[in-house]
Each structure stands twice: as C-alpha cells, then as structure tokens.
Amino acid sequence: YEFPAEISICFRSKPVSYVNTRHVWGIIMSFGTIAADWSKLDEGFFFGVWKTGPWIGFKLPGNDNIAWIGGGAGNSFNFLVWRHSCFSLNRNTGRFKLVENRNKVWDKTTPEVVGWMSQMNMTADILTLGCLYRTSGTMYMSMYGSVTDGQVFSRTLEDGEMEDITSCNSDLEGDIINWENNDWNLKSPYNTTEMEVFDYKKDVCSRP
Predict the structure, then answer these.
(1) Looking at residue 114, what DSSP letter applies?
(2) Distance from C-alpha of 197 to C-alpha of 134, rounded to nearest angstrom
(3) How far apart are CA 179 and CA 32, in angstroms?
(4) HSE of 84 in the Cβ direction (CA atoms, 13 Å)?
(5) Closest CA to 180 of 202, 158, 200, 207
(6) Is the C-alpha dihedral spanning 34, 53, 83, 120 positive or negative?
(7) Which residues touch 30 (CB under 8 Å, ≥6 apart)?
(8) What is d(CA 9, CA 159) in angstroms, rounded to the nearest whole number?
(9) pLDDT > 90: percent of the chain
C-alpha cells in the first residue's frame, strides 16, 4: 500500500468493553509494515482509545521504541454503540486531526512527528482494525467488539468530509484501501474473530 505524506483513515467500531485491567483500552487499529513472522508491527503507527482518551503511537523502525501523542480527553466513552472515527496525519507538518461522531476532537501540529515519520517507508503492507501485533505483554492487542467500513485516503480529508463520514452522511471510499474492494483476513490468536452481518443504515448508522 502507498504510505504518502498525507494520509487519512476512517472506520467504524462498536466496543463492548475495555480490554486489560491495567492499561485499559477499548479500540485499537494499526497501519504500517508487519514483521516477516507476523510477530509485531515493524514500523508505522497505531491509533487507539484508552480510558485516558484517544492516543496515536508511532512504531519507529529498527527498535521497539514507541513515540506517543494524545488526541483529547477520555471523558466520554460509550460501549455497545457504534463510534465513527476519522483521523489524518501529515508527515511534512506533524499535524494530527481527529473527528469522531461529527465532532472535531483534536487538531494539533507536533513538530516531533515529522522526525518520527521521516524514518518510515513510503509504503506499508498491513492495515489492522481491532488489533495490533506487538512483542510485549500478550504479544498482541485486540478489542472486544466489532469493526467495519475501514477506508484509507492519500490526502488529508477536509473537516466537512470527516464530519459527513462520521455522521453517516457520506460513503466516500478510500483510494489506498477500500472496505468493499479488499479481502479482509479474519485472524486472531485464539480464533475468536468471526464475520457479522449488519444492516448499515439500521444498525451501524442508527442513532442511539
């Protein structure tokens, strides 16, 4: 996959509960390059929502260090409802923007991001929704719940585009990865992942 200077990722998730009583996350996804033995994300970034709020981590190549930036407070996190998320990253400026459920949660430029992402390749070979491969802890992170409609774009989406996607008023499709046109690999360490069938308008996009 292309890993351009500007990238936006949108997806929809329905977390059932927090995972891990110590670190307490509810949502996790990643984009980058996977190790040959599928043991870890070699380089790239991952996004998650912890009890403390949204965070994005940058896995730097050549070591196991992870650089972090926050993406807002963890004041409200609802379970058993669909959460609609879009975020963008800019390699050249360090800008990270996050919109969830039509609301702009974060929009900040962090100069350190430029240095971190300059170490990463301009291509990637994996997008994970609902999990992250790593070498620490249980050797992976996963979420309890459902994910759908993952889209990856080779540009920074406008605020209005993100707002429309995260309010189910747009079906904009990614030009790098498109949910409908990709074969998704259902994979989990304990074979607990399964395909579900939802009515997009009545289930995923219904208002609580």
Answers:
(1) H
(2) 29
(3) 17
(4) 22
(5) 200
(6) negative
(7) 41, 44, 45, 46, 47, 126, 127, 128, 131, 132, 133
(8) 13
(9) 61
Neighbours of 196 (CB within 10 A): 9
The string of pLDDT tens digits covering residues 32-74 is 999 998 889 999 999 988 888 899 999 999 988 899 999 887 6
Q: Does the reported pTM lie above 0.85?
A: yes
Beta strand 103-109 pairing with 126-129: unpaired
- Tell me 178's DSSP state: -
Residue 167 identity:
S
DSSP letter (8 states) at residue 123: B
Return the closest-CA partner of residue 117 out of 97, 92, 87, 88.
Answer: 92
pLDDT digits (tens, 9 = 90+) for 75-130: 566 888 999 999 999 999 999 999 999 999 999 999 999 999 999 999 999 999 98
Q: Please provide residue 66's backbone torsions phi and psi, each rounded to the nearest 5 degrees.
A: -125, 130
Four-residue CA torsion sign, 125, 179, 49, 166: positive
Beta bridge partners of 46: 30, 57
Mean pLDDT for the chain overall: 89
**DSSP 8-state class, residue 62:** T
Residue 19's pLDDT is 74
C-alpha–C-alpha distance, residues 84 and 92, integer Å = 26
* Environment class of 45 (CB within 10 Å of its CB; exposed 0-12, middle 13-18, buried 19+): buried
